[in-house]
Design a protein that fits this description.
Layout lengths: L3 E2 L6 E2 L6 E4 H4 E2 L5 H7 L3 H7 L1 E5 L5 E3 L6 E4 H6 L2 H19 L15 H16 L4 H8 L6 H11 L10
Parallel strand pairs: 5-7
Antiparallel strand pairs: 1-2, 2-4, 3-5, 6-7
Helix pairs in contact: 2-5, 5-6
Length: 172
């Protein structure tokens, strides 16, 4: 199978792509038709995704934007095995970073912690809106936003920063 259908019949993710450099549309087809992505690029969506590159790497990880080239970098393993909704949201997240890169913003501004970084907050807010469009509940969004390098306290700040209520009440 060339790819799998994501949360929308318009979206195709080529999970069989091997390491190397690809056109964005050869790996992530249909994202350009999403309203969230159209809003990110404000009328320039087709132009941006037509020239955008995806570099698939063999090392562990997820997705990120290369802060020198503006390309999306993804782990081959994550592309192949990542949970479908998370991959969908992560692509939207990174497309926000692509636009920020094009605007000359510092993607990895060390003056801020990860969860307080303005570029991350904007990207995660866009993901949360897309997740809600996909009818994800806050419980599901909380699970998506649990990132292994973020502490419980930082997760709480991230949830607050992006407007997600943590519905889990811990009992002692």
């Amino acid at each position: 199978m060339v790819g799998t259908i994501s949360m929308s019949s318009r979206i195709r993710i080529n999970r069989e792509a091997t390491t190397g450099s690809y056109r964005f549309l050869d790996v992530f087809t249909g994202f350009e038709s999403l309203d969230a992505v159209k809003m990110i690029f404000d009328g320039r969506t087709n132009e941006v995704v037509a020239r955008l590159r995806v570099n698939i790497q063999g090392r562990p990880g997820y997705l990120r934007v290369d802060d020198e080239t503006g390309d999306i970098v993804i782990s081959r393993e994550y592309l192949k095995t990542g949970e479908e909704r998370y991959l969908h949201l992560d692509v939207v997240h990174e497309l926000v970073h692509v636009r920020q890169f094009m605007e000359g913003k510092e993607l990895f501004d060390r003056r801020y912690t990860y969860v307080d970084r303005p570029t991350e907050i904007e990207a995660y807010r866009t993901c949360v809106a897309e997740g809600r469009r996909l009818e994800m509940k806050d419980e599901e969004l909380v699970e998506y936003l649990k990132i292994e390098w973020v502490s419980e306290e930082e997760l709480g700040r991230l949830l607050s920063n992006v407007g997600v209520t943590n519905p889990v009440v811990r009992k002692k």
